[in-house]
Amino acid sequence: MDAETKAFVSFSVFPGIGPVRFTLLVSYFGSAEKAWNAPVGELKHINLGEKLTEKFEHFRKTFDIDEYIAQLETLHVSVLTNTNPKYPKLLRQIPDAPFLLYILGKKTSQPIDMSRTIAIVGTRNITPYGRDITERLTRGLVECGFTIVSGMAYGVDAVAHKTALECGGKTIAVLGCGIDIIAPPSNAHLYHAIADGGGAIVSEMPLGLRPNKGLFPARNRIISGLSLGVVVTEGADDSGALITARNAGEQGREVFAVPGPVTSRYSKGPAKLLKNGATLVETTDDILDGLGVSIGQRRRVQANAYHAHSKEEQKILDALGEKRMQIDELIRYVNLTTNVVTATVTLLEMNGIIKDYGEKEYGLINN
Fold first, then answer.
1. Which domains, ranges and CATH numbers included, belong to the chain?
2. Residue 220's closest CA among 238, 244, 202?
3. Sheet of 325-326: strands edge to edge?
């Protein structure tokens, strides 16, 4: 890790300097490293404040960056600064974007698509109705190639993450605590499932920082900042999900809300959003329409994201991935019986994965 990145990491651990103040320091001194090593007198001169300067001076004298980096390496946690080209483009656009992200997640053959991210959030006290609609929307969005972003809390968050994983999709969990803290502890299995290949765990908080209510608004702005839009499936009118939705609106992102039973207090949050101009959502198509995803784009992505349900399906998809084929040619190519090929082709066509381009010449929908 170079000296500049070490300075970024060191600032991320010090509790008195957030994204806005950090940006001002780097702008004034020219780099994070120079800001970290700036003389006390100069820090006071730029109005960092007497007390904050004293705390900062004590911190940088006592903080062991090498020991901290060793902890990160032991935990297999990587860091991503806002100067790195790999930093999420959507998140970079918000005015108070984190200057550093801690990331836990194994690289897989299916990388996270950061250009197609959507947040699904809501109440911790999820109802059967909320669970059902969250699962349906998550499945539909994953099938259309979206990465699901949420906060790994109880309720809607956990259901969205879990459903995305079950569908073979990717999901990002943004924590309101240190990345090494599993909160709530009951989500330990989910935490490891995401980190072990299902996506990524993300936090701007330093190692060891325990969750508290004051940290969640900062976490929520990252959830919305990473996403093209925010979907609220269920929540009370004082739900934290509404903070995420408000952040989305302020960041120029789309806000979606699911109507629910008027007798349920957990429908009041989405109802409030709908009264304030959020897009009403009944199906995945409502979200895709709101994001401007055309029917053609949806079909192409669905074809690319489709997971074969049998060896026969995979054989046919592999064959048609090379070129379009007449049905007789396809039968010879895959070396399967006529009945198996025609039945499998029919199912794939019904699912919108392949189509007959005329005179029984089949090809993938995006060819």
1. 3-75 (no CATH), 102-296 (3.40.50.450), 309-364 (1.10.10.10)
2. 244
3. 325-326, 361-364, 354-356
**303, 353 in Cβ contact below 8 A?**
yes
Tens of pLDDT, residue by residue over 64-81, are 999 999 999 999 999 999
- Return the structure tokens found at 139: 């499945």
Least confident range from 96-110, 112-126, 167-181: namely: 96-110
Please give the sequence-ordered ranges of beta strands (E in DSSP) within the chain, or none if there are none: 78-81, 100-104, 117-122, 147-150, 171-174, 199-203, 229-234, 254-257, 279-280, 325-326, 354-356, 361-364
Q: Which helix (H) or strand (E) holds 20?
A: helix 19-29
Distance between terminal CA atoms of the chain?
44
pLDDT tens per residue across span 229-270: 999 999 998 888 999 999 999 999 999 999 999 999 999 999
**0.90 exceeded by pTM:** no
What are the residues whose beta carbons fall under 8 Å from the beta carbon of 80, sequence distance 6 or more? Answer: 86, 87, 100, 101, 103
